[in-house]
Design goal:
This protein has helices at residues 14-18, 53-63, 72-80, 90-105; strands at 5-8, 27-30, 33-36, 41-44, 47-50, 69-71, 109-115, 119-126. By secondary structure, the chain is of the alpha+beta class. The strands form two sheets. A five-stranded antiparallel sheet has the order 1-2-3-4-5, with helices on one face. A three-stranded antiparallel sheet has the order 6-8-7. 21% of the residues are buried.
């Protein structure tokens, strides 16, 4: 069973139109997670998980193309700008950090999938139950 990724935009009412600071930020829902891009946070059933600016940028680059393989070079270009230097591992390092935080926040789901020698794909999927 695949999980959906949904975008929730803040509602506009008379108060938020009068006070732009009152507008809640865009919220992305994926699996068990809610992603708050502006505040660089993940919200999971177990609580909030802080992400760095680069981590949220890498994650959002993948989420924006849900269930599509995104080449490492395209992630690098989107997040760092410019061409990825030869043998640069920055994307891999950040994906590893994000995966670690996602695994802690939502152990029941797998979110980022590797496509060897190509890139990564974001798709929330329940983890298989282990025979334990």
């Amino acid at each position: 069973m695949l999980s959906d990724v949904a975008i929730a935009r803040p509602a506009k009412d008379r108060q938020t139109l009068a006070d732009p600071a009152a507008v809640d930020e865009l919220t992305l829902s994926a699996g068990e997670l809610r992603i708050l891009p502006r505040s660089q946070q993940l919200i999971s059933p177990s609580g909030r998980v802080q992400l760095t600016k680069r981590e949220i940028d890498v994650l959002l680059t993948l989420v924006e193309q849900v269930d599509r393989v995104v080449r490492r070079e395209d992630i690098y270009s989107s997040v760092w700008g410019g061409s990825m230097p030869y043998r640069d591992r920055a994307v891999d390092v950040y994906v590893r950090r994000i995966r670690s935080k996602l695994r802690t926040a939502s152990p029941e789901f797998s979110y980022i999938h590797t496509h060897f020698a190509i890139g990564y794909r974001f798709l929330p999927q329940p983890r298989p139950l282990s025979d334990g």
